[in-house]
Structures are given as structure tokens and as C-alpha cells.
Write a structure and sequence with these properties.
The chain has about 250 residues and is an alpha+beta fold. The strands form 4 sheets. It has a 5-stranded antiparallel sheet with strand order 8-7-9-14-15. Strands 1, 2, 4 and 5 form a 4-stranded antiparallel sheet that branches. A 3-stranded antiparallel sheet has the order 3-12-11, with no helix packed on it. The chain is globular, with a radius of gyration of 17 Å. It has a single domain, classed as Creatine Amidinohydrolase.
Length: about 250
């Protein structure tokens, strides 16, 4: 069921979103060769809790295999849902970080891909294009548009570079649950989808690769990798559709 949020509810999501943005900025300041992904996760959880929120991801999922950390940290060919651990960041890696926070029952969800060291033009263009595709999708989230307009804007930004657009994992509605209806593909499906009205809140999150769009899940039950081993990037903002257009909630 798709729900419209009130101004008061969006204000709570704005707080949650700001905490997420602060976490991503904190990670950006600390991500460097030699730091472990577990260290980054501990920094994030400490910040989320000190801000009066709780991590969205910790314990998420089926009770037989709940997600064990506060951040998803995915390296190189890992697209999303990478589990933090003792792996150390190396020079030249793509580090994709997804963060979520719950404030007074309301979620914020955001992600960024960082490049450690000096990237090749190919890697830099992948990361830059993924961010620009997200921003193109956000710009299309205006009252009166349809969900398919967002999907089309993302595809139009990604396609000229020949990037693989991951199809198995998509954007989504967000509110009192991290994943709500509607689902929001990052590519055209041929379906216009629901009409956007003020109060609709969405997590817009393209995932692009240097190869194909096919992905698989590793034996840990969480980490999603490209099937062909190609590098991947991921960006995400939580937004609210307002009378004045889209408002990004996951920003400082």
C-alpha cells in the first residue's frame, strides 16, 4: 500500500535523513587504505545512536539470517548489501556505503560510492554517472509525473555510457518501514506507474556496472555481486514529493 506522509511525518523523516547524511559524510572523512569495514561500521553506529536514532539495517531481514551490521559496505564488484568485517580498504577500490537510520519510528536511507585513491577515467565516469543518474531521477519526481518518468530519467542518464543497469534491486517507497510500496525500477518497464502527488516519499537508488546488469547473491545470503565480475557503483537519496517539487531528505 502506498502512503502519503503529512508535513509532520516528513519532518521526522527529514531528521532521520540528516543523520544518514551525517553518517555518509563521516565515512567519507575516514575511508582510506588500511581502515577496516568493521571500523567504519562502528563509527556509523556510534553516530546514529548518539543522534537519538537507531540503525535501520542492524537485525533487518529474516530472523534466520538478520543483517549483522549498521552499514552495508560493498567493494568493487559488490553492488549492495556487503557485510562489514575485518577486510581492510585498499587503494584504488570503489567503496559503496549504504546507511539507514530510524528516528521516532521514521526511516531515512541513503548511499554513496567513494573511490579510494586516484581512479582511472573509466571508474570515475562510472561513479559520476551513477550519481548523475540518481539526480536525474530525483529531478523527475514532481507532482503530476508518473513513477515511470523517474525510471526513464535514470535510464536516459545511464544508457549513453553503455553501463549495466541493475534490475534485480530497485528503489522503493519509504516511511515507517524502510521498504514500502511502490517499487521503483531504474529502467523503463513499459508501465507508466502511479501518479506522483505531494506526500509520496521514495528512496531513489540507481546501481550501475561496467558490464552487464546480471547479479547474484553470495553464500552469506546478503552480499550482491555482479555476475561478470565488473565494477559497480550505487547512489541513493530519500526524497519527498512536495508542491514545489522533490525535496532531498538525506542531506545535511
Amino acid at each position: 500500500m502506498v502512503t502519503r506522509k503529512s508535513r509532520r511525518e516528513i519532518e521526522k523523516m527529514r531528521v532521520a535523513g540528516r543523520i544518514v547524511a551525517e553518517v555518509l559524510a563521516l565515512v567519507e572523512s575516514e575511508v582510506k587504505p588500511g581502515i577496516s569495514t568493521a571500523q567504519l561500521d562502528r563509527l556509523a553506529e556510534r553516530h546514529i545512536r548518539s543522534a537519538g536514532a537507531v540503525p535501520s539495517f542492524l537485525g533487518y531481514g529474516h530472523r534466520s539470517n538478520p543483517f549483522p551490521a549498521s552499514l552495508c559496505i560493498s567493494l568493487d564488484d559488490e553492488v549492495v548489501h556487503g557485510i562489514p568485517g575485518e577486510r581492510q580498504i585498499r587503494d584504488g577500490q570503489i567503496v559503496s556505503v549504504d546507511a539507514g537510520a530510524i528516528y521516532d519510528g521514521w526511516h531515512g536511507d541513503g548511499a554513496r560510492s567513494f573511490i579510494v585513491g586516484t581512479p582511472s577515467d573509466e571508474v570515475k565516469n562510472l561513479v559520476d554517472t551513477t550519481r548523475l543518474a540518481m539526480m536525474a531521477g530525483i529531478a523527475a519526481a514532481v507532482p503530476g509525473a508518473n513513477l515511470g518518468d523517474i525510471s526513464g530519467a535514470i535510464e536516459d542518464a545511464a544508457a549513453p555510457g553503455g553501463y549495466g543497469i541493475v534490475r534485480q534491486f530497485v528503489g522503493h517507497g519509504i516511511g515507517t518501514e524502510m521498504h514500502q510500496e511502490p517499487q521503483l525500477p531504474n529502467y523503463r518497464t513499459g508501465v507508466r506507474g502511479m501518479k506522483l502527488v505531494p506526500g509520496i516519499c521514495l528512496a531513489i537508488e540507481p546501481m550501475l556496472t561496467l558490464g552487464g546488469h546480471e547479479v547474484s547473491v553470495k553464500p552469506d545470503g546478503w552480499t550482491v555481486v555482479t555476475t561478470d565480475g565488473s565494477l559497480a557503483a550505487h547512489f541513493e537519496h530519500t526524497i519527498a514529493v512536495t508542491d514545489d517539487g522533490p525535496e532531498i531528505l538525506t542531506r545535511i
